[in-house]
Specification:
Elements lengths: L2 E5 L4 H11 L4 E6 L12 E4 L5 H7 L6 E4 L7 H4 L5 H21 L4 E7 L29 H20 L2 E7 L2 E2 L12 H11 L5 E5 L5 E2 L2 E2 H12 L7 E3 L5 E2 H12 L4 E5 L13 H7 L7 H18 L2
Parallel strand pairs: 1-2, 1-4, 2-3, 4-5, 5-6, 6-11, 7-10, 8-13
Antiparallel strand pairs: 9-12
Helix pairs in contact: 4-5, 6-8, 6-10, 8-10
Length: about 325
């Protein structure tokens, strides 16, 4: 039986990956500080532990695994990443996790390790025009991410590539672009834009106001979780290291994202623009390289994922009322 280790298995992407590879017949171990928030884990074995601790890493990597997926990180949405108040913890915590995981896997002679990097590594100077952002993979250097979260991700990319060159590990690196879907954080300050928008719409009475950070004209692309998993598996099981974008190239404004949440809810709401942490002015996944190398591209429109996510968050709002 094939064996896989999922680091960060209590989080949004990690918990979905556990379910996905269990369906393929893998024996799966998950490890995280916490169990999944919105349901029981599907992992055969789950270690509740802190991957900043080398001892916990050795417990988790106590055997050979065919595939290791490293999603564990100190992260959140714009309200967590772009205020500057959490930079030291983000860089310290995520950096330690990646150093520990890589070294532990090397000492077990584990070859295939997937690392989830982020579109936040791309230079701020290429993302000032909301209509024409440049997120081509080769544009990452000269480096100038707009957050320390992005700098840590870029450092860790280089760390994984160094272990690949120096120790013969078969690392795979993806730069995720705003992954969303059901069973993700939807309140509390670490939620991302689609979940925050769905929550605001779900909590508002028809005709009321919802708050939008900035002028709503900033652009992003958002990738539904199921498509993220397909792209991730395609990359991990290929002969190519990356780094490569895994995201949607359906770019929308935050105003349009709000409109989609309203459409899913069947509500008409007014937008109230307020100041808040925004990140770069524009960002969109450039999918030319992954399509050339792996023949992969997202298949479903953003509205499909927003409708599913809205229904799930609406149920959460009602059950927590």
């Amino acid at each position: 039986m094939r064996k896989a280790l999922v680091c960060g298995a209590g989080g949004f992407i990690g918990s979905h990956m556990v379910k996905r590879i269990k369906k393929e017949g893998f024996w799966v171990r998950g490890v995280d500080l916490k169990f999944p928030e919105f349901g029981e884990t599907d992992a055969d074995d789950f270690i509740k532990g802190d991957l900043r601790d080398p001892y916990v890493c050795r417990q988790a990597v106590d055997r050979r695994f065919d595939e290791v997926y490293q999603f564990a990180a100190d992260m959140g949405g714009a309200g967590y990443v772009f205020t500057g108040e959490n930079d030291a913890e983000i860089m310290h915590n995520s950096g330690l996790i990646n150093l520990n995981i890589l070294d532990t896997c090397r000492n077990r002679n584990i070859k295939r390790v997937f690392y989830s990097s982020s579109a936040c590594i791309y230079p701020e100077y290429n993302q000032m025009d909301p209509d024409n952002p440049n997120c081509e993979e080769s544009s990452a250097y000269p480096a100038n991410p707009d957050s320390d979260y992005g700098w840590e991700k870029l450092f860790s990319e280089r760390l994984y590539l160094a272990y690949c060159r120096n120790f013969g590990m078969e690392v795979r690196i993806a730069r995720y672009h705003n992954i969303f879907g059901p069973e993700g954080t939807w309140s509390g300050g670490k939620e991302k834009a689609p979940a925050a928008m769905c929550r605001k719409v779900a909590m508002a009475e028809d005709g009321a106001e919802i708050e939008i950070w900035g002028d709503g004209k900033q652009t992003r692309s958002f990738l539904y979780i199921d498509e993220c998993l397909e792209g991730t598996l395609k990359l991990t099981r290929s002969a190519w290291t990356g780094p490569v974008n895994i995201g949607s190239d359906e770019m929308v404004t935050i105003n349009q994202l709000a409109d989609m949440a309203m459409e899913a809810a069947g509500k008409t709401l007014q937008k109230k623009y307020i100041s808040g942490p925004l990140g770069v002015r524009g960002r969109n996944s450039d999918n030319r390289l992954i399509h050339e190398k792996l023949g992969w591209r997202p298949q479903k429109p953003l509205m499909d994922g927003m409708a599913k996510t809205y229904r799930w968050i609406e149920n959460q709002v009602k059950s927590n009322a």
